[in-house]
Design a protein that fits this description.
Layout (H helix, E strand, L loop, with lengths): L11 H16 L6 H12 L3 H17 L1 H11 L1 H19 L5 H30 L4 H42 L2 H8 L22 H17 L1 H6 L1 H14 L4 H12 L4 H26 L8 H21 L3 H29 L5 H30 L3 H43 L14 H4 L2 H8 L1
Helix pairs in contact: 1-6, 1-7, 1-8, 2-3, 2-7, 2-12, 3-6, 3-16, 4-5, 4-6, 4-16, 5-6, 5-7, 5-8, 6-7, 7-13, 7-15, 9-16, 11-16, 11-17, 12-13, 12-17, 13-15, 14-15, 14-17, 15-19
């Protein structure tokens, strides 16, 4: 019996928004609490900073890079089943991780399995949210990203409480039960009427005489559908944005992993150090919706990508301040200023991606986008850990983070501005040519025609349709 489909922008969309908010808090907010366990894990396994850093690195990398596999599951089973499967995997990974005897076992369980489960739940909810909201999509993404802020606020406090009473193994066991709530959130993600674009299309196979070529054709179409290499090739803005964010991600997660050890290394007690992460999360609860409200305004619709670049630049400059002094009052001020830029990045990162690609290609574009992010996240904490082992100075980690963030912001902002200037010059040249060829028809313009530039700029099409 076919299942009834929900309507976009309807009443159930707000319930889906709430489920997505909780899911983001449980998944994207979780890695920020790893810093609370960093020193304990290092002592328990007698490992170096670089070796211990591989645990959050694997978790974050799989959380981001599992996009293509998630896209396959969403296409085959739908967002609802995929999100619930993710909750089960995330829970099993943490429970198994609590029994780990070596770091390698921890990488496999709490790193790989949990990260993959979080990826399924998070990306499924983000995909279905973009289908449920059309007119208020920017606002919905910003409100949903506030769940990350809740997670950043609550996860470190819960982790510190459980660490003191149960140790890290008992805490991971409790986390397994908490992450099962992703299954509840996934059950809320009913199919929406506009998700027909995500249904699997029949792939025509070649004749039986050439079975190898038939398999290659199927594999090629599968890769194109779930990794969006064609969009990367033809959409210059998507290419710039993907490369820029990938470069940015090398530096972006470092404060979340190393801020607590950095403060403790400079004499701040463990409770106050964990409070720093909660300050960032608590500030983001209010700042992210505000950023979403600003970004959802029609006047800012065509400038969202520049607002994102400005937020990345501010984030990098703020890390330089943190590297100068480790006094607790200075760190509190750093967290407050850092929260402003972080909230803008969190509210805009997926909305800008939705602006740059057509919505029916968003799952595959997100798959490639997050895969490249995962590669960057995989090397980021171990690289910082190696730098720390070599220099024995936490300040170099924040200098490293600033370098990647500032250079990424300048690259994306400069590239977007250059592309916009070229398109404006091209449009003016065509308009002048049209006026010369059709001088009597002075009132007519080219706005009604689909030029190649317009086809390659989905964000223009999206803004005009709002």
């Amino acid at each position: 019996m076919p299942q009834a489909l929900e309507q976009a922008d309807g009443g159930w969309a707000w319930v889906v928004l709430l489920a997505t908010l909780v899911t983001q808090g449980l998944t994207l907010g979780f890695p920020t609490c790893i810093g609370v366990f960093f020193t304990e894990l290092q002592h328990d396994f007698q490992a170096s900073n670089s070796e211990t850093s591989w645990f959050p690195s694997v978790l974050l990398a799989v959380l981001h890079a599992g996009g293509p596999l998630c896209s396959v599951l969403v296409e085959r089973f739908g967002c609802r089943v995929t999100a619930m499967l993710g909750g089960v995997l995330a829970s099993l990974g943490m429970v198994a991780g609590s029994f780990s005897r070596t770091l390698s076992q921890l990488y496999l369980t709490a790193g790989l399995i949990t990260g993959l489960g979080m990826c399924f739940s998070f990306q499924s909810s983000i995909t279905v949210l973009g289908l449920y909201f059309i007119r208020r999509r920017a606002l919905a993404n910003a409100l949903a990203s506030a769940g990350v802020s809740l997670g950043i606020t609550l996860w470190p406090l819960l982790s510190l409480y459980l660490l003191e009473g149960l140790g890290w193994r008992g805490a991971f066991l409790v986390f397994g039960g908490v992450l099962l709530h992703c299954c509840v959130c996934g059950a809320i993600l009913r199919p929406v009427a506009t998700n027909r674009a995500l249904e699997t299309r029949d792939v025509p196979l070649l004749p039986p005489k050439t079975p190898v070529l038939g398999c290659l054709a199927v594999c090629g179409r599968t890769v194109q559908r779930h990794l969006a290499f064609d969009i990367l090739q033809h959409n210059v803005r998507y290419c710039v944005y993907t490369l820029g964010v990938t470069w940015m991600i090398v530096g972006f997660p470092l404060p979340h992993v190393f801020l607590v050890p950095y403060a403790m290394w400079h004499g701040v007690d463990e409770q106050r150090a964990a409070l720093l992460i909660s300050i960032i999360g608590l500030s983001n609860i209010f700042l992210r919706p505000m950023a979403g409200l600003v970004a959802s305004q029609r006047a800012f619709a065509s400038h969202r990508k520049y607002l994102f670049c400005l937020a990345v630049l501010l984030n990098g400059l703020t890390n330089l301040v943190c590297a100068v002094s480790a006094d607790f009052r200075v760190l509190v001020g750093y967290c407050l200023v850092y929260s402003v830029s972080m909230s803008c990045i969190g509210a805009l990162i997926f909305q800008v991606l939705m602006d740059l690609v057509p919505m029916h290609r968003f799952p595959s574009a997100l798959g490639l986008f997050t895969t490249l992010e995962g590669v960057a996240v995989l090397i980021s904490p171990p690289l910082a850990g190696f730098l720390l082992d070599t220099t024995n100075n936490f300040s170099y980690i924040f200098y490293m983070s600033s370098f990647f963030l500032i250079s990424a912001a300048l690259f994306m902002g400069g590239s977007f501005y250059s592309l916009q200037k070229k398109e404006q010059q091209g449009r003016h040249a065509k308009e002048e040519g049209a006026r010369v060829e059709a001088a009597p028809e002075w009132g007519h313009t080219l706005e009604g025609k689909d030029s190649p530039e317009k086809q390659l700029c989905p964000e223009i099409m999206y803004v005009t349709s709002v």
